[in-house]
Design a protein that fits this description.
alpha+beta; 3-stranded antiparallel beta sheet; 3 strands
Length: 131
């Protein structure tokens, strides 16, 4: 009976150790070999969702964004990166409602009625976040 318990413990530790090893060796800075395309959904209210679209959500427009063929977001690119996917349009319009430059840039590029780029240079929230 003790041998079975030891064997079970070794198997569990091997599985857990393998999981943590894979997490530690996978770097977000390295490009993935074949990332899946991302679906962009815009509702009639102007909310934007990427990939994890709720099942009962009606999209007024929907398209597939293939981020594997596009460069990382820069000042001239409006293609969302995998970092930007954690944001969604939820009605916020002002810099005081943002928590980072990345978030403000996402809202400026993807959400309607934002008021974050007073000089229209494409850089939002220059005094608060992106200056």
């Amino acid at each position: 009976m003790a041998r079975i318990a030891i064997l079970a413990a070794v198997i569990v530790l091997s599985v857990v150790g393998n999981y943590f090893y894979r997490q530690a060796t996978h770097s977000d800075d390295q490009p993935r070999s074949d990332p899946a395309p991302i679906t962009k959904c815009v509702t009639k209210d102007g909310e934007t969702y990427y990939s994890d679209i709720p099942p009962n959500l009606n999209c007024s427009s929907s398209k597939v964004v293939d981020v594997s063929t596009r460069p990382e977001r820069s000042e001239t690119s409006t293609v969302p990166t995998t970092r930007a996917l954690k944001f969604s349009c939820d009605g916020r319009e002002y810099c005081s409602q943002m928590t980072s430059c990345d978030e403000a840039q996402f809202f400026l590029e993807n959400c309607p009625n934002t008021k974050m780029d007073g000089d229209n240079d494409g850089i939002p929230c220059e005094r608060e976040w992106c200056g």
